[in-house]
Design a protein that fits this description.
By secondary structure, the protein is α+β, with helices and mostly antiparallel strands. It has ten helices and seven strands. The longest helix is centred in the C-terminal third of the chain and has 18 residues. The radius of gyration is 20 Å and the shape is globular. The relative contact order is 0.13. It comes from Enterococcus viikkiensis. This is Primase alpha helix C-terminal domain-containing protein.
Length: 290
């Protein structure tokens, strides 16, 4: 099933019962003008362009709890370190024989080479397996074409914007490869399991006792950096992480970078300006009180 909707509000339209390849072959990208300013770009991305989720939802409100499974791997290729042609050629080589869809994202051309890659899976996957597949793609298959990974890719209910025609991109850049088969999930996960086992230098049971014995509030604080958060409690969590790290004498500059990392794991990340405003508000209180 394919669910279409805007980033805001997080309400999706009734599902479309088509394969992802069928959907994109019939899809007509809208034409938009991408503003030069960040505020205009954000408004376009959140309220002006449709996005989608491929899989199964139990309700049409987009949040992690409502997404039952995904059946396509969707990756944002933002920090690209090669040319557009090299990126396309690399993806085509690595995914030879597989179905995939590749198209420029809204920021392509304005912020360098930016693409979105969609890879249909041969079976539905849960959140744990989805994250594992993303890690394999980013660390093994795409490591030569991108520098860093946008952590929002790992948000379970992340919506991905559909292609559009801008002053920097055209319809011909939407590449649809029908291929001979979908990505074999179990084969890829088995490869990852075997590869990890070979690299492991210490037995897992060596750490089991310590892992449960030494859990405390500091453990929970550091786990909260990558735990994610739904809308409605994001500022509170940024404030809590800021206060907790500063109270433990973590360097102020490092704290700011860490809360920005935590923000990328939110279902809907806050703007950098809002994160910094919350950070400075808490930091001012904590540091003046110390």
């Amino acid at each position: 099933m394919i669910y279409v909707g805007k980033v805001r509000p997080s309400i999706m339209e009734p599902p479309i019962d088509k394969s992802i390849i069928e959907f994109f072959k019939e899809y007509e990208p809208p034409t938009v003008i991408v503003p030069d300013d960040e505020g205009g770009q954000k408004k376009l991305k959140t309220m002006g362009i449709d996005g989608f989720i491929a899989g199964k939802m139990k309700a049409l409100i987009r949040k992690n709890d409502n997404l039952i499974y995904r059946d396509c791997l969707i990756l944002d290729l933002d920090d690209v370190i090669v040319s557009e042609k090299q990126l396309i050629d690399s993806v085509a080589t690595e995914l030879k024989g597989l179905e995939f869809v590749l198209y420029p994202s809204v920021s392509h051309g304005l912020k360098g080479v930016r693409y979105r890659l969609i890879v249909p899976l041969d079976r539905a996957v849960n959140e744990k397996d989805y994250r594992s597949l993303l890690e394999i793609f980013f660390n093994k298959i795409l490591s030569k074409v991108i520098r860093t990974v946008d952590k929002s890719n790992f948000t379970w209910s992340q919506i991905m914007l559909l292609p559009c025609i801008t002053q920097y991109s055209n319809k011909d850049q939407l590449l649809i490869c029908e291929g001979k088969r979908k990505l074999p999930v179990d084969e890829v996960l088995l490869y990852m399991k075997d590869h990890t086992a070979k690299k492991r230098k210490a037995p897992v049971n060596k750490f089991q006792k310590g892992g449960s014995r030494y859990r405390n509030t500091t453990t929970e604080l550091f786990e909260s950096l990558v735990a994610g958060c739904e809308e409605g409690n994001r500022n509170n969590l940024i404030a809590s992480i800021t206060g907790g790290l500063l109270a433990r004498a973590v360097d102020v500059a490092a704290v700011l970078e860490l809360v920005k990392v935590a923000n990328q794991y939110f279902a809907e990340p806050l703007s950098e300006k809002e994160v910094e405003a919350t950070f400075y508000s808490i930091a001012k209180k904590e540091l003046s009180a110390s």
